[in-house]
Design goal:
Elements (H helix, E strand, L loop, with lengths): L1 H13 L3 H11 L4 H40 L8 H26 L1 H11 L3 H34 L1
Length: 156
């Protein structure tokens, strides 16, 4: 029963926060590589599926709202510092760069929204984000493993 709760916790955390959340949690629970890989990847896949589909809906609603506001009161587009940073990242790295950074820095919900916002082909977004989840699940396990071993040897 306790093991099932651990698996569910890692799985649910993997849907939102990946490299900095679920993989260290799996290592903290003492999961071996194959178990950590399967649970974090399946949670990441579910997160990508949920947030890409919800981002598509959200983008559609934002577009409708923007068009409605244009009719009532047209406004001039503002280029803020944040908008410039997002556009520069898109131009410099493309979908591959956004997918690469999603599990590591952006988190799956924000990365899915940005990827779908700027790259309209949904199948490509799925493919790149899922590939990134698989890559970071295996890589982060082996990056965190020596750190966890050192902590266990030092404190326990």
């Amino acid at each position: 029963m306790n093991e099932m709760v651990e698996i569910i916790a890692v799985f649910l955390l993997s849907t939102v926060k990946f490299v900095l959340g679920s993989v260290p949690l799996a290592l903290g629970f003492g999961f071996p590589f194959y178990k950590s890989f399967l649970v974090t990847c399946s949670g990441g896949f579910l997160g990508v599926f949920i947030f890409v589909n919800s981002s598509e809906y959200l983008i559609l609603k934002l577009k409708e709202r923007r068009e409605r506001k244009k009719i009532i009161s047209p406004f001039k587009r503002k280029f803020t510092r944040k908008n410039k940073l997002i556009v520069q990242t898109k131009r410099r790295f493309g979908l591959l760069g956004i997918a690469f950074l999603t599990p590591l820095l952006l988190s799956i919900p924000i990365g899915s929204f940005i990827a779908l916002r700027y790259f309209k082909v949904k199948k490509r977004v799925y493919l790149y984000l899922i590939g990134s989840v698989v890559f970071w699940s295996a890589t982060s396990y082996y990056l965190y493993k020596p750190l966890f071993n050192a902590i266990q040897n030092y404190f326990f």
